[in-house]
Please model this.
Amino acid sequence: MQPSEFKFEWSMEAANFNWAILERHDLNMHAALQQQSNTQLGFGSEFRTTKLLAPLAGNHPLWPRLQQWLQYGAAFPLQPLQEFERISDLKLALARGNHKSAKNSPHHVNTLLIKEVQRGWQLPLPPEKLLLLPGAIIAPLGLAEQASINDRGEIIHKHRITHDQSFNYSGRNSVNARVIQEQLTPCVYGTALRRLLHYMAHLRLRHPTRHILLTKLDVKAAYRRIHSNATTALASCVIVPPLALMGLRLLFGASPNPSIWSDLSELLCDLCNQICRCPLWNASDTPHLESPHQQKYVPQPTYLPDHIPFASAQNTTVTVPTDDHPYTEVYLDDFITCFLDTPHAIWTGSRISLLVLHLFGRPIHSYEPTTRDDLLAFDKTLAEGAPEEVKTVLGWIINTRSFSLSLPIDKRDTWVTDIHRLLAKPTLTYDDIKSTIGRLNHAAYVIPSARAFLCQLRRLELHLARSGKPATPDKGQKDELRHWCYFLHRASLGISINLLTYRQPTTFLRADACEHGLGGISINSGAAWRFEIPPPLRGHLSLNLLEYLASAITIITAVAHDHIQPEACVLSQLDSTTADYWLRKGGTQFTGTERHIHLDVSRWLSTCLLDIGACTYSQWIPGTENVVADSLSRDHHLSDLDLTNMLHLFASPQMHLNFHIYPLPADVTSKLISWLQSGLAPKDYKLTPKRSTLALSLAGSPSSLPSASPMMPSSQHSSPTNAPGSSVPLHTPFVQPSTVATEHNRWQHQQSAIPLQHFQRPLPSTTETIQSSTLKERLTAFYTSSLLPIDKTTPHKKSSEHSPSISSPKCSPSNIPQPTAASAPCSSSHSSLPCDHANTSLSAALEKPNYSGSGTSNSSSTESTSPRTPPNYTQPT
Model:
């Protein structure tokens, strides 16, 4: 590899020298970079040549895009920008400068950027010349502080440069505002942790008393390993007096970069899972087929003390193709591998991610034109590379023995301290509340019900964003912050992983409400309750809120009767679409005059679930199927005994043998009365109670008078003695059977709508020597399906006028191009790594390292097809 003709020094002399080179190329950045193809500026120079990589990855659906980036540089798909707008924004950027975080810490900024210049990641230029450079765009710099880990496993704080390419100087002209998201590969790393937890759950179910180990690997300076093409580099300029810098590699702050980097990291992850399932790679036949860093940087496995018991896993409602081979997940640049404590799994699992990274990365040559590091972050690998039962993954501590997820103690203490600091401040700024809500939302991953305590804080955030001025938090907002100190403490103690997977419901509850009553029942135990709203309090709360209240009370009374145990999965069924939506959102979508009651109910329910350690789902069912709960809420003219007899006689398919109506606990009744009293009925409100369909079928039409004689449930029903002669009994309605088994089947049926990305990566069949021919189709669908969050509810008709609009995502067909036939390494064109070629390909890549430079110099003769655009994608929160 030859040195570049550009100078990478922190000096005006180097900046003027580089400008002279651009002038020789008529200020054509494309032509200038083409002349550097055999230098460290050559596209793909951080990796082995595409000719070497094609046999390993040529059949992967992401390979055409990755090959494009390695041969021609990463390109941002941008809407065009008018030249006069670009020049205007450029002048504004020169006048404004960087963000305060960068201006206030010039030493940290310069120290970080000097390193980037010395490595050839940033090209020094004279700032005043940028107005003459066609296509140049400036983004302001910021400085962020983050935590990292050293080789001793100690938490250290460091700074990171951010390029704010979302900043608009005028209009919506920023780089990120002009990105065409439809032309980027959908990202799937957002659900990586959830997929890993599902794999662990199925592994624990298969092996209840065997150790499960985790190992972790980080790519050093991941984004900086992919070169930008000339157009993207020109759109990545910054000013740090006295220099202007042009970013030649991917930067932190550009919205396309996660997708572009994922084209590489997701492919590497799939390759890890393929190689681990290749029988030709094992300790006996290929003992030396490993990364040269393996023995030095990866310690032996460590285990927890033997006296600590193995926690059990609960059944999930989704199927994960678990086998006894190691499983790898990736979150951008973090590779996490999970495997059993068996000799073969330990050997492959502790080696696989290092091996694949070494196969793709160009090894360090004894002579490098500029400072260059290995792809592997050595210090982090020393600290986190050992297979362990406890590992910090994506900011969470995973304990595979206790089967729990917890917030690190140092993170909890820092966040609690910051909350106390906010509570002591008289006013809060937008930056204060934004960062705090981001942290708390992260913590809510393990305590989903705690999101009910973010509602007031989010309103404060919206107000601060609109006004741009500091504001004084009110009592409700301060109360939410205080509650979060408790939630963070609970998160640090650990939450069972069983509460974070897609579970099979263990407890089925049904509830209903009408204008004059509420009721609910447990399908498992037959325990029921009902409450008649006193006439003076009727109409004080909306029907949707009463339905929501009925569901919450049903769950809480089931807890009070010990019908819900720790780690239970509660399915609350109801026939109100709005209440179903509120149960799933947990307080984040409440509006209107009853908002404070909504929040009180939501927080009451959330606290109860947190105390018992249970998770809950909701499910809409048709009102015609909710017969028992409907009767409990309406038929208060009948005694408990008469109502019980009627339901056993005419609703037996939904009746439990131990059906019994219990009185509401006194504290629940008190809360319910208090909420009813806080409302106000509309003027001239009148209500004639309407009885259930079952009761009407016995009593006749609603216009008839009630019978004066007692009802005899054991006899055939007849016309009431004092009813008009024209009144005849209504037809007894058909009652849909409802048992634990029938409701479990109903719930299981709807789970097929959950996108694959939420609970598993597509793995090859473990029973075939050559991987399944459908693997490539599964991979393609995996990277093109919608990643919008899925709510746990059955499809139903459009909600009432009071119900929010809810739209379901639709999966789009795959349109990522297939590799050309010339790039296929064997006849099995559907396998991204055929086993009968794996040993040869791996050995060849290890024995013939590429020191020649960029991927274009020794690339395959097959030209990369320009990838088609995947469907529109929205990043999940």
Summary: The chain has a mean pLDDT of 83. The longest strand covers residues 141-149. Residues 257-276 form the longest helix (20 residues).
